Amino acid sequence: MARAAAVPVKNRLKVLRAERDWSQADLAQQLGVSRQTINAIETEKYDPSLPLALKMGKLFALCVEKIFMLDDAQ
Amino acid sequence: MDRKAQRDVTGALQGTQQAIGGAVEAIEQTKRVYGTTLLIRGVLWMATYAASRALLEVVGDQWLRIAISLAPTPVLAWFLWAWVNGLSRMDELERRIELEALTFAFPVSIVFFATMGLLDVAITLDPNDFSLRNVWLMMPLLYYIGLWRAQRRYR
To answer: Rounded to two decimals, what is the model's pTM?
Structure first.
């Protein structure tokens, strides 16, 4: 059976963070992760785990689909 | 300075800046995850290892030599235990980076040692350079190369 290709995911994390005037370090501290993790998610080099995505949703008071979405262009 | 040279210089400066930034971040991560525990245990192990190597140059009694050579082992295990325990304090991306580092280092180590082993059979490598006392250093070196590669991927 052929392995499924990785699904590219986009996110609005940088925009949501900027709206609240938070630095990456501020957001990282609130989520209990490193600044490196926030940067990697924002630059779409890393997709967060479900628990972390749900924590983000709770922090921004948004459902996960409003923060992360499939990259339909690819 | 022509444009190509200017671009090269700019690129080199950016690369250096990124490398310094990466090193600073790595040091901050180490401090956050390990505090001073890893550093203290690492220094203690290096001191016992160096003392052991120095004593083995002068001590003749075989049983004493065996005891001296084994003395750094519990200190090394204590140091590595701190490193392993630190994994539970890392976040998900940091843990993935550690896994990717080990996924690089372990197979490359196998290739290296298997190749050295056969070369030693073929041409008898100089034991002053290629005995176990020295080649084990390839393992932490390969781990740090793997760590650098993995961190770069997510920067």
So the answer is: 0.83
